[in-house]
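Before the break, one more example. Copy the sequence into your notebook; we will annotate it together after we see the structure.
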Amino acid sequence: MRQPSAVQPDKTALIVGVGGSDAINLTITDMGTVNDAFSLSVTGLDKLDPTWYHFEPTALPLVAGATGTARLVIAIPAGQCQAAGTYPMVISATGAVSGLLGSANATLTIVPTPPALQNVLPGDNASVGNPLPVFSWRSNTPGASKLYLRKHGDTAYTAYDVTPNAQDPTQYSYTVTTPLDPGAYEWYGTTTTSCGLTSTGTSDQPHPFSVVQSVSFTVRSYSFTVGDDDDQTTDVNGQPLAVSVRNDDRVAHTVTVNGGQHLRRPDPGLHRLRQRGPGDSPAGRDAHPHPARVHAADSADPIGDFRKTPRKGGFQRFFGNMLRNLIRLYFKPRAARFGVLLPHNS
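Here is what the structure looks like once it is written out:
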């Protein structure tokens, strides 16, 4: 008798919404001693139209001891709400020479509405560093999808039509076209078929998230006391002269700190922030100290020109206008003291 492991499915439970499709991948191993051609079959789907499921390929030739792969593809047409239910299946491979090779059990569940939406972004309590955030989710069942968005505290939502990705129709996404002001927001999304609706979040229990400045300093201000020597990297107490920034965006940015002859970053003044993953929590914001050198020998002019440049294309934002005239060196007989007032996210 053939070993059951000759037919191995990658999953034993398949859930498909009406109007959707999915597949079970099969690994077939010829456990016999002769070359053979194996046909694939499935029982338990007698109540479904046989055009709704098929094998790819329909037959699998194998030499003795070899392994091949196939798929059972199931596609439920839109509008077939009456097909909803659970169907136990037996998938078999039969050789033209050796007969039954093996079987595997599985279950197909057809639901009238799309299954739970997956890969939902932005997640609950996410900090989004882009004023044009992307909202997305995944559904293996096509339908009319909508995004509902409002600022925290507002009563009404604004609705947007969400379209599937041309290359991956299971992926639905929408990019805001009008920049959102920094602050707290709420959203939820729906996908609707002729049989019903599935949502991620609801109007009463939406997904909360915040729009924040993409690159910002981790504290509001810095104050350093330095000697009157040239090319200093520490204050009078030996502490490093450094400011710390973090990146709340989903893409990497390069931060440039330009301070002219009085405050400048060493060699050559660039530090690339690590890209923040979509699953990071607000507590995991990427922060990095930026060391500085102070030349306090002969001048007390205002200093500071901070700017942020995206790694690839896009926009530029200059912090210089916000910082210029806020940073100044104040000299004493043997020491100089300066403070930095910087934009930051709470």
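Confidence is low (pLDDT under 50) at residues 259-286, 294-344. DSSP finds one helix and 30 strands in the chain. Try to locate both features in your own notes.
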